[in-house]
Sequence to fold (275 residues):
Amino acid sequence: MFNIYNKTLNKSENILFSIHKRLKIYNMKLNGNGLKVLEPVKINGVNGINGNMHALNLWEEADMLGDEHHATNIETPLRDDAFALTDATKMAIIEDHFHQIMETLGLDMSDDSLKGTPHRVAKMFVKEIFHGLKPENKPSISVFDNKFRYGQMLVEKNINLNTTCEHHFLPIFGKAHIAYVAKDKVIGLSKLNRIVDYFARRPQVQERLTVQIANELKKVLNTEDVAVVIDAKHMCVASRGIMDQSSTTLTAEYSGIFLQEKTREELLTYIGMKI
Fold:
């Protein structure tokens, strides 16, 4: 099996492969070393593609979508049966497939340095860097009465951020900065770090991650007065493609009082960003 953008292509089956933001559907199957377009699928009586279109164009378009870091949804894209398998089963399947990947690359899997790698990668995926995919791993968040009646901005800055680009499965790392203005409830400071970590431990797009963190805080604190700023380096930019090792990506989500320019300026001053 081959997996492309969460769509599984099975050697014995035809599949539907949907490309983001296009009303085109392709009916394809594996044919030797590539994908062969069998026939166009009609949508409202209109052919999705020219039946003679070369499969390479499909790969190029999918690559373009990934390189441009498109996200399709504010929610992490998960299948309905995402949690049907146990962690142990997932690890066994991933280990087997990663062993095949390494063999395909020509590596000698009998070498002492390599033979344990498929298991280590499988464990890392399921138990560590994608730990946040499972709702049951969501941290328990306690809030407390705002007994001090503190009504000014609270800022937690320079929260360590480690996540994974969902387009290339390469690291994204940097800092997250969170601010909120409390109403009746406040949250323990370490819980802010845990919320960031939970949503980061999954394949991600930085824009989605920023919004997911902000939405969770608004729900937990029962306030719209929330801001999240993330400054991160993408290894899919630094180690491949353009190979730009100096740039970082900045995203921000503002709501409530943070939509006011003066409040945003105050926040950016606190976290040390020039206005």
